């Protein structure tokens, strides 16, 4: 559509903030910004969708710790600590439960290599001051009797919980609507810039939206929005994950559950997890594939997940397989999010959450609202400024201590 034919919103409807992307990160930003008194609009063809439709919802700050990601750990822990209060507020505002379950996590080893890997992870967790307990294989099976008899040991992490990301997205959508957030059901095709400042966006159908500030929160799509100047476009790429959903057997009250907590392992070098929900769903994930924008569910992906999950918990092959799906994690160069103001006045980022979007939802909402109101990020989020990727500006997220060994 030529610019002259583009439809514009009436200027009286110009909000303080336009959020591009209505996944959980865009929605939490909108909800928290509205809670701080800002007028907010969200542009998304299907708000409440995105990677959260696929995600398992593990809040795994401790069990997903990686060597070299100590600064990200601080943000992950800060967000995990906010979850109980965030859940209470969101369930009230969104009028529904979000499946926050304090179930803990058990990460197990299936062979000697896995065991060595878990021992290193345990040492890193302890050096990082985290709560994690080493268990023998027998102790693991006592906790989770459905585990394979060959389990060689594991880590009990009682502080890593779970939430249901689909319920989280649905509650955020209702909370936004109730807070007066305006929704434009269209895909942002281009950022509009005038006088050296972001002024809004043009949607794929030609609708033009203007706002005082724009937040780019479009998940993996954030890295390819037209109109964003070179050097400001976030270095975010899609990383495909395939996930299965099975149905857990109903057990009589008082009988042990099939699995009582999240169970994870590294099988053939890839992370595998089984997340049992109170709703009766068992989520099995996930592949990690650098295949661009492909979201095909493949026979190979399903086969590998089932094969590895069967090695870990042989009884899963008896369960009904109810859904297969694939989504795109928004990967960033250092696996950490990009939050807050960019070098383009009027444009802020909330993207690149990679494996931690669900975990980081509470802290992202609070940090972005603060940044939109005051122009600066709170201390907890400052290391995640997009400035760390700007040429000539120091401040990488990774902080490695000499004692750390790769895990
Ligand atoms: N955080 C789990 C995943 O990205 O697969």
From TrEMBL:
GO molecular function: flavin adenine dinucleotide binding; glycine oxidase activity
UniProt KW keywords: Oxidoreductase, Thiamine biosynthesis
Protein name, entry field: glycine oxidase
Pathway involvement of the protein, from the record: Cofactor biosynthesis; thiamine diphosphate biosynthesis
Keyword hit for Lyase: no
Listed GO CC annotations: cytoplasm
Domain FAD dependent oxidoreductase as annotated: residue spans: 16-370
UniProt cross-references to InterPro entries, sorted A to Z: FAD-dep_OxRdtase, FAD/NAD-bd_sf, Gly_oxidase_ThiO
